[in-house]
Amino acid sequence: MKPNIDTYADWYKDKFDIHLDGKASSVYEYVIQKLFQDIENSNFWKDLQKNLINYNDEYYLENSYSLLKIDKIQLFSKSYKSLINKSYRKNILQNNNFPNEPVDGWVFHENWFFKIKDLLRTTITVRYLDGVEFICNKIKELALQNDFTYNADFEAREEGYYAAHITLTGKFNIVDEKWDNKEINFPIEIQITTQLQDVIKGLLHKMYEDSRISASLEKDKKWQWDYKSKEFSSNYLGHILHYVEGMILEVRDKQNKK
């Protein structure tokens, strides 16, 4: 029988012989703070902050419209509680091989600094749909100049979520659970989303998080046929807004051709 989120810590202790609220927590907090500082002090991050204004100006010259809402972005770290919730989803909820390990292996304290891609993340919000790919291309160019590997996933989820998720991976030094130094390939996530999608994301985030760590391990029924459910209205709103954003671009481009 699969453990629920309330009994996950006990299962984890039996499986990996370490308390989630003990050394694993202390090491995580220390390492994530160090990585946070290393990223903010990196040439890549400094250049990205400086270049945002230039990116906005270049887009304006091409399209006669401003692209970015702000000219500075903020780095965020995943809380330890959120990390544990994610490991629970990977190891238990989404693991069809349980009680054996998932296809991609266990997610636990020895590997989560390089296996979980969004421990450090930021979001860049653009006003127009075509700005997502525009900014992705700029970040790719900057990342390769600073010895990061680049991967972009243009997500279009069933629940109406649309955004580009960029993963940049670079070499960083951390400590392990024995406090020994080691070098890892650490991923950073940059989400590129539109202004409308960002509003929806903020409104629905709490509901989305609650559903992901639900104690129920049964598969959800088809929300597309349950018009009274919260998912029906919220998920389709995301799809509708994505369509509207495409129509806005079509109108804008026609005006620019006149």
From TrEMBL:
SUPFAM superfamilies named in the record: Nucleotidyltransferase
Question: Please, which domain of life does this record's source organism belong to?
Answer: Bacteria
Protein name as it appears in the record? Uncharacterized protein
Q: Which organism is it from?
A: Flavobacterium amnicola
Instruction: Give the taxonomic lineage as stored in the record.
Output: Bacteria, Pseudomonadati, Bacteroidota, Flavobacteriia, Flavobacteriales
